[in-house]
Design goal:
Blueprint lengths: L1 H32 L3 H12 L6 E11 L2 E10 L2 E8 L5 E5 L1
Antiparallel strand pairs: 1-2, 2-3, 3-4
Length: about 100
């Protein structure tokens, strides 16, 4: 009986270790492939000429459409609202609207 419990515990630990390793690989590959959400906001701010002191709120969403990945960035300022769509791989601006 003790051997059976130890065997189950060892199998559970192996499964946990493998799951954590896979999770780390996925997180690392995402970080290496895409710009961060903060970088997306900085690109949009720079393009729009927005001063950080003028920002009321920012909203960033990572979107995936098939093989295309992008960030939807919305910046609310005292002067209005800015919307950007950026390529998540290289930060290129695909769409902008004020």
């Amino acid at each position: 009986m003790l051997y059976f419990r130890r065997d189950i515990l060892i199998k559970a630990l192996v499964i946990l270790i493998v799951a954590l390793a896979i999770g780390g690989i996925i997180f690392t590959s995402h970080s290496a492939l895409y710009i961060s959400g903060n970088e997306a906001v900085e690109i949009a701010k720079t393009d729009a000429g927005i001063n950080s002191d003028d920002i009321l709120e920012t909203d960033v969403k990572f979107e995936r459409f098939g093989s295309d990945t992008m960030y939807e960035v919305k910046i609310d300022t005292f002067g209005g609202e800015y919307k950007y769509t950026l390529d998540a791989k290289n930060g290129d601006i695909l769409f902008s609207l004020q």
